[in-house]
Amino acid sequence: MFKTLKSAAAAALGAALLLGTAACGTTDATTDSTTGASSNATEGYDLSGVKTNDSVAALLPSKVKSAGKLTVGMELSYAPAEFLAEDGKTPVGYDVDIATAIGKLAGVDTDIVSSTFDSIVPSVGSKYDLGITAMTITTERLEAVDFVSYYRAGSSWVVKKGNPNNVDTTQLCGLKIAVQTGTVQEEEANKAAEQCKADGKDSIEVLSTKLQTDAATSVVTGKADVFYADSPVGGYAISQTGGELEMLGDVEGTAKQGVAIAKGDEEMDKFIQAAVQELMDDGTYEKILKHWGVESGAIDKAEINPTDLA
């Protein structure tokens, strides 16, 4: 999101993500005032209709109530979940809208704090009240934090248009795979690399970057053969390149994503579950997702530490 890119194709991707342009690749947004759906979400969903809900607000932890704000850690290069708007300063995306709506239900402000993805889990409960950053719920992460489920996404492989390097996702040995540091996709790529080594095959080079935009750019510039990311993120990156990238195969491994909460903080768990469920029940949640074009990942039940992660 912050880098100057070398090739014309890379510049197209970088500029689009830097400026926060939306999925259809134009700045002329058209929005349905009834549903909030937008063909080009350059701004967040209009949350002016979200008012304080007394039953939800009553569950707000006293420490947040006294602070008057809910502090949320996000990695702001993960469009369309969370990224920076055209001014280069304002956080936007469906996670930003959901976090803001949660605060509004409780009658407090939401303070979005930019962070690197891999530092969010260790900072929840100390630096941040919550982590909301398109984070997949895994058994490993559940050992470190609590989660309230709110979305479902899979993983997608993205290559240059026409797949000039003949990438085959069933035969990854010998490839350069771009991923974001700390993600499930990085873990899977590293496991594949270990397997190739154990089998005596050509090695996989895992190119791990702090920013998801850098991972996508690695494919555009030819530094990597393929990049591996959450399906909404892969789809968004493809839409920004004017045909320079394409998805390879189908979305894989659909899994739930969740709001990360300090381990054992039952008060916060119950508050977030009630707030997210209220947004689901009153229709705000669906409208937010439609605004960003990611409603296919909607779920209808917010659960604390779900056991069914798929």
From TrEMBL:
Coiled-coil regions listed: none
Keywords attached to this entry: Signal
Signal sequence region: 1-22
Name of this protein: ABC transporter substrate-binding protein
UniProt-listed InterPro entries: Solute-binding_3/MltF_N
Residue ranges annotated for the Solute-binding protein family 3/N-terminal domain, each copy included: 69-296
Domain of life: Bacteria
A Pfam match: SBP_bac_3
Species for this entry: Bifidobacterium amazonense
